Inverse folding.
């Protein structure tokens, strides 16, 4: 999982890479590991962590990044249960 993979503009939704691109993906590939997903650098994630509130408990945020990662992980662990 690549954390802080990009910043998504709240106005236009364009994605800007914060660090070098594809580093985690290349490293995973070279080690035979699947990349499960990318998590953006997002202020609301930091704010919920600072408050001790799980990000998944915030009702106003889009959890697609985490849901997609969880589905891929579930399929890897037990393909028949997902």
């Amino acid at each position: 999982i690549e954390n802080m993979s990009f910043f998504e503009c709240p106005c236009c939704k364009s994605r800007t890479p914060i660090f070098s691109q594809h580093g985690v993906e290349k490293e995973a590939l070279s080690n035979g590991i699947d990349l499960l997903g990318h998590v953006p650098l997002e202020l609301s994630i930091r704010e919920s962590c600072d408050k001790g509130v799980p990000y998944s408990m915030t009702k106003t945020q889009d959890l697609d990044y985490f849901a997609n990662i969880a589905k891929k992980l579930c399929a890897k662990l037990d393909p028949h249960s997902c």
